[in-house]
Design a protein that fits this description.
By secondary structure, the protein is α+β, with helices and mostly antiparallel strands. It contains seven helices and seven strands. Strands 5-6-7 form a three-stranded antiparallel β-sheet, with no helix packed on it. Strand 6 and strand 7 form a beta hairpin. The longest helix has 13 residues.
Length: 218
């Protein structure tokens, strides 16, 4: 059963930024439950994970990989706190085709890690490492974001002591038939914060008109 970056790639989830250069390139990662079943296969790195494993079929059932939530938990000790939040957000996109999980599913899984009966083997004395980091990340993760850079921008606001803004805040403007979604907003203060990536260069005129309409609304 494939795991880590291999599972993320198979599910079309953006790879995270690692603190020390990341995992080995051109290497497939597969999960095992104990060292007793470890073997040697060229090009495959086996990763030990004794916690609960939920897998999913990929490519018409020809491949199996850990589902998004299990993959996220396995990454906890490989990522900085901020990147664990970014990875979690990337699994809960507003785009329905990219949404792999809900925040509640993450919470249920992390809670399950505290129950040692869920682990492979009956002699487990404590939960896997990283549960505290997972719980910290859960407090900062948000559903329905659009990009990892938006998440990183939100974390910057929190780092400087601001409260967490609402994400993808819906706004209906006079004279427009459709709803606008602000990347981040403090609605009570009528403040909008947006991350303008490279793709915004081709939409400058439309973005400028939208900004004017928003400013007209205060």
């Amino acid at each position: 059963m494939f795991a880590l970056d291999t599972a993320l790639s198979l599910q079309g989830i953006e790879l995270p930024r690692y603190r020390r250069g990341g995992l080995l390139a051109d290497t497939l990662h597969a999960v095992i439950e104990s060292n007793g079943v470890r073997t040697i296969l060229q090009g495959i790195c086996f990763v030990l994970w004794s916690g609960p494993q939920t897998h999913m079929p990929i490519h018409h059932g020809r491949l199996r990989c850990t589902d998004s939530v299990t993959t996220w938990a396995m990454q906890a000790n490989r990522l900085e706190d901020e990147e664990l939040v970014v990875l979690g957000d990337s699994m809960m996109r507003r785009d329905g085709h990219m949404k792999k999980a809900t925040l509640e599913e993450f919470r249920i899984y992390v809670d399950s890690l505290s129950d040692l009966s869920n682990y492979s083997g009956s002699d487990r004395l404590r939960a896997v490492r990283g549960v505290s980091k997972m719980r910290r990340a859960l407090r900062l993760m948000r559903e329905n974001t659009d990009s990892s850079q938006e998440t990183r921008s939100r974390i910057v606001l929190l780092r400087y002591g601001l409260p967490c803004p609402e994400v993808n805040y819906a706004i209906r403007l006079k004279g427009y038939s459709h709803v606008f979604f602000a990347d981040m907003a403090y609605p009570d203060l009528k403040i909008i914060i947006e991350y303008d990536g490279r793709h915004h260069a081709s939409r400058w005129l439309a973005d400028s008109k939208r900004r004017e309409a928003l400013e007209d609304e205060g």
